[in-house]
Design a protein that fits this description.
about 200 residues; six-stranded antiparallel sheet; about 25% helix; about 15% strand
Length: about 200
């Protein structure tokens, strides 16, 4: 009796809930795109007639949009033994100042900064010339502006000792390179990502 009641309820459910209308054929889909060419397409290269209004000489340009990788490539400094903030400073200096071809890092020294990977020596080409002095000044300014990012402790250039809080004359020399000391941040463990500012 219980089984008969359940079967009767199931019959009612399927009879009323099912689709009782016969199948009809669907209307044919309307064509959205015709067989003809939808557009007059022209591929324009960089040497076309398009001129960039912002270009001072009106020369053709390939694109108004440029992408720059945020990842800093390895710079000119040997990174073996450098700490992470020192590596970031070295890579950033290399990227910002392509005229720098030599940056020293870890080396024996009675003071701890170079042996511990906390210091860089940014060698200035033609350091006694007006251009060399200006380049050294620009590098000092760059590291001090980025002091928080690089963990800058100090910089020394042409007898001046610079810190993020000010400068003072010193007897440290450094007339052929800018010495940069960071707070280190620990040694790399692998997989670090060094990003541009």
């Amino acid at each position: 009796m219980v089984l008969a009641a359940l079967l009767a309820a199931a019959d009612v459910f399927f009879a009323t809930a099912g689709d009782v209308h016969p199948f009809t054929t669907a209307a044919a889909a309307k064509t959205v795109i015709g067989d003809g060419a939808p557009f007059n397409l022209e591929i324009v290269g960089a040497a076309s007639n398009i001129r960039d209004k912002g270009s001072p000489d009106g020369q053709p340009v390939a694109s108004r949009y440029h992408t720059r990788s945020r990842f800093l490539p390895v710079g000119v400094a040997p990174e073996q033994g450098l700490q992470v903030r020192t590596i970031l400073a070295a890579r950033s200096i290399s990227a910002a100042f392509p005229q720098i071809h030599e940056i020293g890092g870890v080396r024996p020294d009675p003071l701890p900064w170079h042996p511990l990977g906390l210091a860089l020596d940014v060698m200035i080409p033609d350091p006694g010339s007006a251009q060399g002095i200006a380049l050294g000044d620009a590098i000092v300014k760059y590291v001090l502006v980025n002091a928080n990012r690089f963990g800058i402790q100090d910089a020394i250039w042409r007898g001046v000792y610079y810190t993020p809080t000010g400068a003072q004359t010193a007897r440290y020399g450094h007339f052929d390179h800018v010495h940069v000391t960071t707070t280190g941040g620990g040694y790399p463990k692998g997989g670090e990502t060094y990003l541009a500012d």
